[in-house]
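Supplementary notes for students who missed Thursday's class. We covered one full example, reproduced here. Read the sequence, then the structure, then the short commentary at the end.
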Amino acid sequence: MSAASPFRLPPPAGGGVDLLIVAGEHSGDEHAARMLRGLLPLRPGLRVAALGGPRLEAAGAQLLLDRTALSVVGLGEVFRHRAYFRAVITETVRWIARHRPATVCFVDNSGVNLRIAEALRQGGVSAKGGGTVRTVYYISPQIWASRADRRFEMARNLDALAVIFPFEPERYADTGLPVEFVGHPFLAPDYAPPVRYDPAGAVLLLPGSRPKAVSKIFPALLGGYRAFSGSGAGRGATVLYPSPAIRQVLEAATPPPGVELRQTGAPVAASAVLTSSGTMSMHCALAGIPGAIAYRTDPFTYMVARWIVKVPYLGIANILLGEAMYPEYIQGAAQPEPLGAELAACTSDPLRLARTAEQAARLRSMLARRSGSGESDWLARNLA
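Structure (token representation):
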């Protein structure tokens, strides 16, 4: 299937679906799979289909479409693949209208998912539009960073929302939408973090999971590591990647000797990190790995983001703490010398290490679930 071609989702196995999960990208597939694994023991016999990825399929869903096969970032990439996203929205709405799952649970990926939810209401398919399909949402778009008015659109189109940051319910207080904080998925009891702190470990380089972004960010991370290792630091580096497609992008940047490419799997010990601002930066922050954020995107996306984003930091840990746990080097500021200096401080400055440990402890306390319920329990209560 090409990015521009129309396509048809297969019919549900077994003749019907109780729950359709609509996720996107690698992180959404991972979070949705964990939620489903916790849900199925609570609701034995539940028939589940999904638009997601291999982890949702392994968790027990019939995979209708692998949404992780195309992950994009930046307005330019979204524009180039607009035909694909239009086809996903149109066909998903058609499939739901035809097969009528009792509940649709959207997971993150607001650019596509909120449009599907709106189309279901406008078409009279969802309960919000007078139909039978209940629509719920797990992991809110970051309305506190930009486009806060989306909360009213969500209240019109959704029956319930689960959020992962404790301050988010109050952001919806004026909408009437039922919103519940369920704790951050990275602190779930059964979650195995992919990284841990070890002062004797390698330097970790984390350019992200989207090919176009990785092609821009990884050279900056390599430059910082070269500046650091050239000073006689003598530490190797590990680069984590989520898929073979990303490995190809990494290899095209010609990493020097001492840089190991490793697919995400068993936990990796690290003494310091240079990371993009995505999901893995939060893993590192919660693990207490000192480091810095480096980020590059196309100039148009950066210009638009500077105009619409209303938060002082790019990294979510920095936003939550209200201070730079990870100093940020954006666009032209992501140069080898300052990034190399960050790695040197992270591996040798006792004050930097103590401050990172204290910030990580604050983050973990802030994001832990406040009661015995989590995302799986929330979804079980909100099934039709």
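Commentary. Residues 211-229 form the longest helix (19 residues). The first strand starts at residue 19 and ends at 22. If anything here is unclear, bring it to office hours.
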